[in-house]
Design brief:
It contains four helices and two strands. By secondary structure, it is α+β, with helices and mostly antiparallel strands. It has one domain. It is globular and about 30 Å long. The two termini are 17 Å apart.
């Protein structure tokens, strides 16, 4: 399974982010808004809880969100 390790700029700790699976994409697609989809994807790809994601500084969340989005880009 593909993964990357990133350092969160505000919290300062490193976390592993795994590439989303088709199952994760299907589950996230059931959310109503793009923000909710992105939160669900980030939760699944980091193994963080909803509370952990929602309590992140927005800059830390954006770094995670970008890493997840990078997995979805064709190279």
């Amino acid at each position: 399974m593909r993964k990357v390790t990133i350092k969160l700029p505000i919290r300062g700790d490193e976390i592993e982010i795994y590439a989303p699976t088709v199952r994760v994409m299907r589950i996230a697609s059931q959310e109503k808004t793009d923000d909710e989809k992105n939160i669900k994807l980030c939760m699944s790809c980091t193994n963080m809880s909803n509370d952990e994601i929602e309590n992140l500084d927005v800059l830390d969340f954006k770094v995670i969100d970008k890493a997840v989005a990078d997995f979805l880009q064709e190279k």
